User: Fold this.
Amino acid sequence: MTKFGFIRHGSTAWNKERRAQGSSDIPLDQDGIDDAKKLAARLSSENWDYIFSSNLLRAKQTAEIVAEKLNVPALILDTRLREVSGGLIEGTTEAERMEKWGADWRSMDLGIEKVDSVLERGLACLNDIHLKHPKSNVLIVSHGSFIRHLIKELTPEVDLTSHLENTSITTLSISNDLWNCEAYNCVKHLDQTVNNG
Assistant:
């Protein structure tokens, strides 16, 4: 059995402003850094063998904080774990999109990456990791929309109505080509205080 822990990156200024980030390279804000430290403290009591991350700064920073706390091999960056590209909507809020393109903006071709493309690169990445590190526990630090697309594809029975929280962890395992979701959107570490020691 191979176990994957999908982590959504820590919070950014754009998260708080509810701006579409997509491929934009936005750093963590202070809350994002603090929450990533809480996550790292939680994960340090668990057994993880590898950490893979999107190369976008907010995911990379989150992964670096976790990697520093865990005794794992070098952090591995993979562009296939990047967020769904937002095309023309990147940097905009819902209100700005409504003003610019109207209420039907979701039905317009604004250059947003198609789901098929996201799944093609995401599933290929997971398959490569699974083949290279079978029977391992692997952390994947990525992005909300990207993770949700993968969860929906691999474990369609999971209720995805709740919004994926920043630094949440969703755990999936694969055995005999069958995927199982063990935990979804877990943020129990956010109740803990930060230990900077």
Observations:
- The two ends are 34 Å apart (CA to CA).
- The CA atoms of residues 15 and 21 lie 8 Å apart.
- The chain has a mean pLDDT of 94.
- The first helix runs from residue 13 to 17.
